[in-house]
Amino acid sequence: MLKKYWGTGMLSRLILFWSIILFGLISTLTNAHGIKPAIVEYQSSNGLIEINLTINAELFLSGIDASQFVDTTNAPEAKIYDQLRLLDAKELESRIKNSESTLKEKLYLKVDKELLPLNLDKISVEITDTKENVRMTRISYKTTLPINSQQVTFSWEKELGPLIFRNLSPEITDGKFTSKWLKAGEETDPIFLNSPRKNSSRVVLSAIQQGIKHIIPDGLDHILFVLGLFFFSYKIVPLLSQVTVFTLAHSVTLILGSLGYISLPPALVETVIAASIVWIGLENVVRTKLNFSRIGVIFCFGLLHGLGFASMFTQIGLEGSDYLLNLFSFNIGVEIGQVIVLIPFILAGTILSRLSLYRLVIAIPASIIIAIVGIKMFIDRVI
C-alpha cells in the first residue's frame, strides 16, 4: 500500500510532503516559546572585571528549569512565564531588580578558586514584540580583581540552562574574543590573567571539537539522516554518492548561513530537518535504485541541514574570533562526526549484507524506525 501511493510520481509526492510541511511551518513560525541559550560576556582590564549576561529574564523569574526543557510550553510554570511576557519593558525591569539578588546567588565568578562578589551595574530590557519573539535582557555586573590574581573561572546554577561564554579581554586575547558553549552547570576553563592567547592550532582543535560534538552526541537528527542514506544502500558507490552530495550541500549553506547571506527562522529549519528524516526513511522502503530524483532530494535536504549547522555555529559564538578558521574547522568537525557515525555501520554492513534477506530483515525495519523517530521529532517541533 505504501509503495502504491509513495511511488505514483515525484510531483505528487512533493505536493503531499510540502502540504504537511506547510502546516508545521505555520505552527513553528508563531511559536515564541523556544528556550535560547544565554550569552555571558567576560572582560577584565586594569584590575576590573565586567560580566554581561544576555538572558531570557522571564524564564528565570518564572522558575522554569532551563536545563530540563527546550520549550517553555512543556514546563509546569508555563502560565507564569506567559504572564511575565505580557509585561512592558519598564515593569519587567522592576521585577528583575526585585529578584536580582537571587539571580546573583546563582552566579559563580571565582578568582584563584575563591568566589568573588558581584556588584550590579545596569539592567537593559530589549524592546520587542513578545508575541512573536523571545525577549532578551542584558544584566551587567562589575567587580574588582584582587592583587596578583592568577586565574578566573565562571559558572552558574544548572537550572539556568546552557550558555555561550565569551572572553572579550583584549590583553588576554590579542584583541580577538574567544567563545565556548557550556552545558548547564558547566564551569569554564581557567582564564589565565596576562597570559598569551591560544595559538591557531588550539583554535582549530576547539572548533573541530565543537563540530564533532554537534553530530555526536548532540545531533541525533543529523545522525538519523546519515543512517537513512546508509540503509538505502551499504554499497560504496551509492553510499558515497549520497554522502558526497549531502556534504557538498550542507557545506554550502553552512558557509553562506554563517556569513549572513542566507537566513531562515531556526524553528522552520529544525522542523524541515525532522521531516527530511521521515522522507528518507520512507523512501528507503519503496526505492531500491539510486536515481537523479533521490540525489536531488538529498541535495535539497542537505541545504537545510547546513542552515541548522550554521545556526549552531552562530549560537556557540565561534564566528567572532578567527572567523574563517573557526568556520572551516567547525565544518571539518561535522564531517568527522559523520564519518565516525558511518564507520561501524559500514563494517557491520559488509558482514550482514551476506544475508539473503538483508534488505527485508535489516534495511527496511531500520528505515521504518528512522521514519518513526523523525515523525516524533516533527510533532515535537511543531506543537
What would you note in describing this structure?
- By secondary structure, the chain is of the alpha+beta class.
- The chain folds into 2 domains: 2-30 and 210-382; 38-197, no CATH class.
- It is 55% helix and 15% strand.
- The chain has 13 helices and 10 strands.
- A 6-stranded mixed sheet has the order 5-6-2-1-8-9.
- Strand 1 and strand 2 form a beta hairpin.
- Helix 9 (236-258) crosses helix 11.
- The protein is elongated.
- The protein starts with a helix and ends with a helix.
- 36% of the residues are buried.
Helix content: 55-70%
If you average the pLDDT, what whole number results?
82
Query: What's the order of the H and E elements?
Result: HHEEHHHEEEEEEHEEHHHHHHH
Strand portion: 5-15%
The order of strands across the largest sheet is 5-6-2-1-8-9
Summarize the topology.
Elements: H1 2-6, H2 10-29, E1 38-45, E2 48-55, H3 57-62, H4 78-85, H5 89-104, E3 107-111, E4 114-115, E5 119-125, E6 137-144, E7 151-156, E8 163-167, H6 170-173, E9 178-182, E10 191-192, H7 200-215, H8 220-232, H9 236-258, H10 266-286, H11 292-315, H12 323-352, H13 358-382
Parallel strand pairs: 1-8
Antiparallel strand pairs: 1-2, 2-6, 3-4, 3-7, 5-6, 7-10, 8-9
Helix pairs in contact: 2-10, 2-13, 7-12, 8-9, 8-10, 8-12, 8-13, 9-11, 9-12, 10-11, 10-13
